[in-house]
Design goal:
- One of its GO terms (molecular function) is RNA binding.
- Keywords: Ribonucleoprotein, Ribosomal protein.
- It comes from Ktedonospora formicarum.
- This protein is of the alpha+beta class and 140 residues long.
- The chain has one domain: 2-Layer Sandwich (Ribosomal Protein S5, domain 2), CATH 3.30.230.10.
- The protein contains four helices and six strands.
- It has a six-stranded mixed β-sheet.
- The protein is elongated.
Amino acid sequence: MAEITKSETIKGEYYYGMGRRKTAVARVRLYPNGDGSITVNGKPAQQYFGIGETHLATISSPCREINLGNYTITVRVVGGGTSGQAGAIRHGLARALVRMDAENKAAMRKAGYLTRDPRMKERKKPGLKRARKAPQYTKR
């Protein structure tokens, strides 16, 4: 496997990770020597996900797992709803942390952050009202 190097941008060096959950896709950039802020689609994460703490806790869980210091995290996320987007960001951030330091891989794997969650919405079947709900049965 080829050695992974840091990418260069106008802002400087960063580590990259892409995460997916349901139909959401997140592209995460991890900038060292930052202020610890998380920006999602150009907005602060608290503003993007609203007042609820559950999505913010989901996003920052990989950082808490390894006690991440002064890093700035920028995210571009498309598709899905807020829950799927939060899961995609967590997946992408975990991948970026592994790319930053290979020693983080064991902790991320143990916490289950590197595994792509395969659960998707089941498709509607013909003759049914939803994926599994059938029309009401009448005997007479």
